Amino acid sequence: MTEYNSFKMPNNHFTYYLNGKRYNSETLKKACKEKLQGDSLSVWGKNIYAFILNWLSDEDHIRVNTSGSTGKPKTIELKKSQMAYSARKTCDSFHLNAESTGLLCLPAAYIAGKMMIVRGFVSGFNLITREPSGNPFANLNEKIDFAAITPFQLFQSLETLRKNSPVKTLIVGGGEISPALERKVQDIPVNIFATYGMTETSSHIALRQVNGDERSDEFQVIGDTRIKTDERNCLVLENPHLFDGKLFTNDIVDVISENRFRWLGRFDHMINSGGIKIIPEEIEKTIAHMQPHAMVISSVPDKKLGEAIVLAIETNNLTEETREYLLRQIKAQVQPYALPRIFFSIPEFPRTDNGKINRKALKEFLRNTQVNTF
Q: In terms of pTM, does the model score above 0.90?
């Protein structure tokens, strides 16, 4: 399909491939309607076929729910032309075409799942659908060129991907790839990319390879998106093909060039300790290699400093010896103002539905407990 400047329905001669079957527009709509009329279809499956019907309709937009990355969660309208543009740029980046195979293993109720379907339609690749699970590659017989997954799915799939990977390229979104997880994927024989984007941009606008010879800590912008920062040092985006006007984010970044940037952390995670603004994600990257458990830099109220830096470790077995070792190591690598004043040992961090650590809930928990602190 040619790149969309304005969205127009393809005619019946255009070919779609879904689970190895060939369709044109009318036969695909008929198949979707038949699926939706059946009694055995799961909610996950219904979302797929309902979205396809929506995409093939005469409407020029799709209604989607945002995650809240740029404000409170809300329902917005995305133009189909915007989604098609985003899909085309991704497919061009990874050389996906009618000879390729893609895997949908994310819920089609959300933008990441919807965009996998759109990528298949824009590029003509064969889209294989599989019910979302922690390890969508287990017992997968097909060879897959491209798939999108969450960090939780990546973690759960490590052994499968390491031993006999059925997939060539993965993009990972819906949350940051932790430094600990990034270390674990270095020996995975799959090209793995972290993504930067949001619902408002119809999925990602930038990619960062996290393993292999091209591994980098900088995001490379794809397409025509222009980047700069505001007075908070947060990323500002412009791309008339994706959204109207400017999009102001809460992501603190270091802009390297006109199309490359380094992600530092979230403005809403920033800690003000004694008048010094601290980005917790930067400290976490520095100390992540020191022990195997997940670690989060957070804060608790302090009469003198306003907020005191603390370190939460996801374990129920933190010894005094380990704490002293960590403190020595941290002192050698971070500034004195960023040193944790309290260590918390927590058996399990609160997490969101997609497996991302819920920092807000964790901070609230830390403010109301002194259990297992040193």
A: no
Question: Are the CB atoms for 329 and 360 separated by under 8 Å?
Answer: no
Q: Name the band, by pLDDT with cuts 50, 70 and 90, for residue 345.
A: very high
pLDDT in tens, 84-116: 999 999 999 999 999 999 999 999 999 999 999
Instruction: Report d(CA 244, CA 222) in Å as an integer.
Output: 18
Domains of the chain, each with CATH number or no CATH: 16-266 (3.40.50.12780), 270-367 (3.30.300.30)
Phi, psi of 178 (to 5 degrees): -65, 155
Query: What are the tens digits of pLDDT across the range 16-67?
Result: 999 999 999 999 999 999 999 988 889 999 999 999 999 999 999 999 877 6
Instruction: Name every residue whose Cβ is closer than 8 Å to that of residue 2 and which is 6 or more positions away in sequence.
Output: none
Sequence-distant (6+) residues with CB within 8 A of 149 are: 105, 106, 136, 157, 170, 171, 172
Instruction: Report in angstroms the alpha-carbon separations of 296 from 3, 71, 231, 324.
Output: 43, 23, 27, 17
The Cα–Cα gap between 165 and 137 comes to 8
What is the helix (H) or strand (E) element at residue 307, kind and residue range? strand 306-314
